[in-house]
């Protein structure tokens, strides 16, 4: 038997990246049912994912798109599309951004992850990458790196197209919340609560990350855990030691923080 015929099938070395421990466990459980991939590790944030991709050079990355601080798209940016391994994106992105995945991504899986859809995506990657011999490092198909670069650009445009609204996940649905309708936002552990009228939406993001998306002319951070729509402020009430109590149009009271006193004073003096 020739050496080529006797070689064992190549196991695709896979890195799992998702900021949710339950999601990572689910992906690993699905991968454990396969004999053509092996999990070499997992990352719970984008920064560690960049380091692991650079150091371990996996063949395949299951990459969550929406992560606080450094999301999946920024992971691609920092590693460089030309140096990325094959990528299957795991996403809850909205319909505008999904067009970019359809055109450019090797494959993507929508959250919540469906078992059948998941295995179909991995089958496709195995077919595309598994033809390399054991002495060769599997790599993304020709044109995939250019596609990744184009996808990043298209996603930037897609984000711009929805600049006046934020996509939030409610159960198994994706809803648009218009920025103009937001009263205030408060931090809550590893997500934020968006208050819009009588509705409260939980959104996976840090307050700093969301602050960067909100127009500075309309929204102000008044506390390390609170951002307010200044157009909703009805009244300023002096509070203890130079802080302020802000009363919104609906009667909601929000307390300012020490580090933000000057911002509020400038707002009052406008």
At a glance:
This protein has 270 residues and is of the alpha/beta class. 34% of the residues lie in helices and 29% in strands.
Q: Give the second-level CATH assignment, the architecture of the largest domain.
A: 3-Layer(aba) Sandwich
Shape: elongated
- Oligomerization category of the chains in this entry: single chain
At the first level of CATH, what is the class of the largest domain? Alpha Beta
Report on this structure.
There is one protein chain. The chain contains 9 helices and 15 strands. By secondary structure, the protein is α/β, with parallel strands linked by helices. The chain folds into 2 domains: 3-161, Rossmann fold, CATH 3.40.50.2300; 165-268, OB fold (Dihydrolipoamide Acetyltransferase, E2P) (Beta Barrel). The strands form 4 sheets. Strands 2-1-3-4-5 form a 5-stranded parallel beta sheet, sandwiched between helices. Strands 10-9-8-12-11 form a 5-stranded antiparallel beta sheet. A hairpin with a 4-residue loop joins strand 14 and strand 15. Helix 3 packs parallel to helix 4 (72-79) and helix 5 (95-104) packs antiparallel against helix 7 (144-161). The longest helix is centred in the middle third of the chain and has 18 residues, at 144-161. The protein is elongated, with a radius of gyration of 23 Å. Residues 1-7 and 132-137 have low confidence and may be disordered.
């Amino acid at each position: 038997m020739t050496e080529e015929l006797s070689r064992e099938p190549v196991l695709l070395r896979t890195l799992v990246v998702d900021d949710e421990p339950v999601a990572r466990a689910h992906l690993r459980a699905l991968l454990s049912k396969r004999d053509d991939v092996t999990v070499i590790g997992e990352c719970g944030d984008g920064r560690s994912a960049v380091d692991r991709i650079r150091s371990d050079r996996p063949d395949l990355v299951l990459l969550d798109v929406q992560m606080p601080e450094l999301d999946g798209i920024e992971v691609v940016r920092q590693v460089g599309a030309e140096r990325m391994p094959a990528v299957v994106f795991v996403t809850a992105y909205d319909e505008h951004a999904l067009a970019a995945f359809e055109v450019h991504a090797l494959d993507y899986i929508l959250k919540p992850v469906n078992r059948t859809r998941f295995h179909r995506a991995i089958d496709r990657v195995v077919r595309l990458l598994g033809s390399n011999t054991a002495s060769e490092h599997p790599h993304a198909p020709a044109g995939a790196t250019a596609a990744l670069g184009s996808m990043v650009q298209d996603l930037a445009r897609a984000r711009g197209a929805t600049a006046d609204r934020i996509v939030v996940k409610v159960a198994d649905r994706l809803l648009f919340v218009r920025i103009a309708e937001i009263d205030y936002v408060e931090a809550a552990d590893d997500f934020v609560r968006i208050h819009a009228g009588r509705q409260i939406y939980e959104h996976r993001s840090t307050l700093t990350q969301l602050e960067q998306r909100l127009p500075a002319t309309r929204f102000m951070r008044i506390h390390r855990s609170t951002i307010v729509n200044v157009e909703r402020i009805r009244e300023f009430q002096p509070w203890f030691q130079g802080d302020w109590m802000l009363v919104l149009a609906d009667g909601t009271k929000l307390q300012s923080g020490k580090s933000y006193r000057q911002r509020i004073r400038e707002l009052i003096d406008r």
